[in-house]
Every structure is written in C-alpha cells, then in structure tokens.
Amino acid sequence: MATPPAFSDIAKAASDVLNKDFYHTNPASLEVKSVAPNNVTFTVKGKSSHEGTTAGSLEAKYVDAPNGLSVTQGWTTANSLDTKIELDNNIAKGLKAELLTQYLPASQAKGAKLNLHFKQPHVHTRAFFDLLKGPTASLDFVLGHEGIVAGAEGAYDVQKAAVTRYSAALGYISPQYSAAVTASNNLTLFTASYYHRVNSQVEAAAKATWDSKAGSNVGLEVAAKYRLDPSSFAKAKINDRGIVGVAYNVLLRPGVTLGLGASFDSQNANQAAHKVGASFTFEG
Fold first, then answer.
1. How far is CA 239 from CA 74, 117, 277, in A?
2. Which contacts qualify for 60-63: CB closer than 8 Å, 24 or more apart?
3. CA 207-213-218 angle, 5° bins
4. Are 61 and 44 in contact (CB under 8 A)?
C-alpha cells in the first residue's frame, strides 16, 4: 500500500456496496454531464424527494491539469452560489489545497472553508478549517503499512477553546477483502465493517453498529452486488429492522445509464412504507 486512504475512506469498499447505487432514496433523479470545447465540464443535477420537494444544481468545472489547478462554480435551486478552487501538487509535492466559498443572496449569508490534504507513502493526513463559523478546525490522519491502517480524527472550536469531536479507526485493506473498526462520536458509536470481493462478478459487505449511549442493541446490515454482464449489475441489501433494498443499473448505450431501485419494509408489508426510485445519467 503506497498511500493509505483518507480517514473517512477506511471502510469505503464496504460502504460503497452497502450504500452506493441504491436509487429508492429519491423517486426520480437526473444527471447530465457535458464537456465544452474549452475543457469546461458542465453538470446538471435534479432530484425529487418522497416528501414532494425537488432540488437541483448547475455546476461548471475547469481543470488545468499541467498546473494542478481546478475551479468549480455551482448554483443550486436553494439559491446558493458555491465556488471551489483546488491546487493539487502545486504548493508542495503531495499537498492538495481547497478553498470553498458559499454565498446565499437571499439572506446575505456567507461561508468560507480551507481544506488541506497531504499524502505521502504510508501516511495520509487532512485538515479542515471553517473560517467564518467558530472558527473551527478538524484534523485527521491515517498511517498504513502492508495493508494495515490506523487513524484518528479530532475537531477543535477556537472560540470555545475546546475539543468538540474525536474518533479512531483500525483496519486492514487488500484488493480481495477488507475489514475496519471505527469508534466515532467521541468514542461512543462503534462500527465494524467487512468487505469481500468473492470473484470478478460478486462483491459482499456487512456492517454492525453499536451506540453505547443508546443501549445494548446492535444494528446489522448486509449487502451484495452481482455483475450480470459488462454493462449491468444488480444489488440487494437487508438490515436488522427488516428493510430490504434492491437496485439495478444498466448502461443502455455509451453515455446513458439507467438505475432502478426499491425498498420494502418486510415487517410491515401492509403499510405504505415502501419506496421506489429511478435515475438517469447522461454523459457527452
């Protein structure tokens, strides 16, 4: 392992199988990507919710790869103007700096954040600074050696002069399988996850969660992904509450992807707790 993952990605392989590409969370979602002749990428997103609201965004991104510079400008249906400026391997080797700003014209509210990512062999550390709120700072780091990774995270409120959050994680990562144990929420929420690539077609993952403040009950979730052919796959998952999720993803043609999903409450089959959703993605 040349560079370990970021702290939030220690259990990424399991999290992707358990959470990614399940489309029932929104009744309908649409994403359109296109690239202009000047290499500016435009992305339009829209999604409805089961509560009846609709949200969307328009994003333009310019990348100057030789100089490690990218600029992203976004505008959402919440009338939020978001800007991100990234410098990757520009200031120093292995260092990526991000400046994020937000402006809400309706309320005149403003936001500004500075993020730093530093990667070297066997170490990955990040620092996040909220420049206007607090201000606050958070730092995480991960050390890795021969597949074994260990990391910690902490947040500090400058105005309160107090540590507001801390977490720790330990894991093992390989191409075929990985496992991780995380203690978050000031070491009160414990999560154990496992990922296994059974073969080129089948992936499986499981996650157990215990909140020491909430009682002795342990939450459990398992999921599997099966690649039907090079252009399609199916997924299914179930948790300890009997919520079943299924999904199907297919590449209809180059640049056009369809996703279908549904969730069912197996313990309350007669109640209106079921959800369905669909997603279209166009790339050109």
1. 36, 34, 19
2. 62/38, 63/39
3. 30
4. no
In this predicted model, which residue has the larger pLDDT, 214 or 100? Answer: 100
Choice between 30 and 215, residue whose per-residue pLDDT is larger: 30
Beta strands 148-157 and 69-76, pairing class: unpaired
- The rounded distance, in Å, linking the Cα atoms of 51 and 90 is 44
Determine the Cα–Cα distance for residues 270 and 120; give it in Å rounded to an integer: 54
Question: Which amino acid does the sequence have at 49?
Answer: S
pTM of the entire predicted model: 0.89
Contact 262, 245 (CB under 8 A): yes
Superfamily of domain 7-283: Porin (2.40.160.10)
pLDDT band at residue 1 using 50, 70 and 90 as cut-offs: low
Q: Are 262 and 237 in contact (CB under 8 A)?
A: no
- CA distance linking residue 49 with residue 58, whole number of Å: 18
Asked if the bond preceding 27 is cis, omega within 30° of 0, the reply is no
Amino acid, single-letter form, for residue 263: S
The band of 171, judged by pLDDT with boundaries at 50, 70 and 90, is: very high
With pLDDT > 90 as the criterion, what percentage of the chain qualifies?
84
Query: Is the Cα dihedral 278, 84, 96, 132 positive or negative?
Result: negative
What whole-number distance in Å separates Cα of residue 218 and Cα of residue 200?
Answer: 31
- What's the pLDDT score for residue 50? 84
Encoded tokens for 123: 């170490």
Residue 274 pLDDT: 85
